[in-house]
Design a protein that fits this description.
Number of domains: 2
CATH topology of the largest domain: Nucleotidyltransferase, domain 5
Strand content: 25-35%
Largest sheet: 5 strands, mixed
CATH architecture of the largest domain: 2-Layer Sandwich
Strand order of the largest sheet: 3-2-1-9-10
CATH superfamily of the largest domain: ATPase, nucleotide binding domain
Radius of gyration: 21 Å
Distance between the termini: 26 Å
Bound molecules: adenosine-5'-triphosphate, magnesium ion
Structural class: alpha+beta
Number of helices: 12
């Protein structure tokens, strides 16, 4: 009997986006159920016990006791630590299993998971293996830009091309979609985490002060922008860190422009890649994209100023998605109900 025979009877089929910063899980009929940091805390010894998962693990980062390590098992969009990813996904699936449902959950769920266009066959198989070992009956893999296009309800079958730009936690991925397929794509190992690191090194060099990752991320969300014309929630903030000279705590006042200065080199790498992909795009498709604008998704798309920076560099307008971090997982979730479309866009055996 085929595995999907059982999956049809499951009322908890799932869409999964295993991101570098957050794992998102969509449950059929329920929507986005889990949105947890991709982090797990475990004892350092071999086969060490899990101490905390998701949010609870993330808050320990930078203050771990000696015997505990916090692992962020997905790096630049691919699984870097298989066992830790498996522990994390298994745990989240067990929570989904505990949510109220119509039927007894005798069978595992059908899972649709997003993978990067750039991921190798081995990396894609690792995603599939994690889902199967976590209890899935059947797994389909979808390229994330395609999932995002479905999540945004774009007419992906249409002959009019769309350009999607996803600026996430550890990756930036851009793709042109037309007639249900990916025409061109580009991948950069740059996302929110790299933006945070650039703030850390900027402040270290300019003020000789070392700050933690969480402080850098907070400063980015309050002051960060990629264009001087963008409005940010604040104009300046006081940041606490450690003076590298004296080793003592030190507070510094940071202005909006300084954070922008730290973020711009990475932001410009993204616009450069965008220009390159547009240069390679057939003229008819560029015309479609000009009319519709570039669809912007991913958590880091929320940094103010992308619209201005992209318009200055490419003369294109942008459309920022609503809930930009959820487009991939919502697309995977929509495909659970649309088998016809799923059959057209799924990857076969981890390959195109
Ligand atoms: N308001 C905001 N302003 C700027 N950055 C933000 C904001 N909200 C979230 N972020 C950043 O978004 C990033 C996470 O985005 P997202 O959930 O799209 O990543 P991901 O899907 O886990 O990663 P990836 O797709 O790169 O593997 C984090 O680095 C976070 O700091
Ligand atoms: Mg993502």
């Amino acid at each position: 009997m085929p595995a999907n025979f059982f999956a049809k009877f499951s009322d908890f089929n799932l869409g999964v986006d295993l991101g570098s910063s957050f794992v998102k899980i969509f449950a059929q009929g329920k929507g986005v159920l889990f949105f947890e940091p991709t982090a797990i805390a475990r004892q350092k010894k071999k086969g060490g016990q899990i101490v905390a998962v998701g949010k609870r693990a993330q808050v320990i980062i930078g203050k771990e006791p000696i015997r505990i390590e916090v692992v962020e098992p997905v790096e630049h969009g691919v699984i870097a630590d298989f066992d830790a990813t498996l522990d994390l996904v298994k745990y989240l699936f067990s929570l989904v299993r505990q949510t109220p449902g119509k039927w007894l959950r005798l069978f595992g769920p059908q899972v649709i998971a997003g993978v990067s266009c750039q991921a190798t066959e081995v990396e894609r198989r690792a995603v599939k293996a994690v889902m199967l070992k976590s209890g899935a009956q059947e797994v389909f893999l979808i390229e994330k830009p395609m999932a995002s296009a479905v999540g945004l309800e774009l007419p992906i079958d249409s002959s009019a091309g769309s350009l999607l730009l996803d600026i996430g936690g550890g990756t930036t991925e851009m793709a042109i979609i037309c007639l249900g397929g990916i025409v061109l794509h580009r991948f950069l190992p740059i996302g929110g985490k790299q933006f945070d690191e650039s703030i850390i090194s900027f402040l270290r060099l300019k003020y000789g002060v070392l700050i933690g990752r969480a402080t850098a991320e907070n400063a980015k969300k309050q002051l960060g922008s990629v264009s001087s014309r963008a409005l940010t929630p604040r104009a300046q903030v006081v940041i606490r860190g450690r003076d590298l000279g004296s080793g003592l705590p030190k507070s510094i006042r940071i202005k909006k422009g300084e954070i922008m200065e730290a973020l711009l080199p990475n932001a410009q790498k993204i616009t450069l890649a965008l220009k390159e992909i547009l240069e390679e795009t057939p003229a008819e498709l560029v015309d479609d994209i000009l009319k519709k604008g570039i669809y912007l998704t991913g958590g880091s798309a929320q940094l103010p100023g992308w619209e201005t920076l992209i318009a200055e560099e490419t003369k294109m307008s942008v459309v920022l998605a609503q809930k930009p971090q959820e487009t991939v997982v919502r697309g995977c979730g929509s495909l659970l109900k649309d088998k016809k479309l799923l059959n057209r866009v799924k990857l076969v055996a981890g390959l195109r």
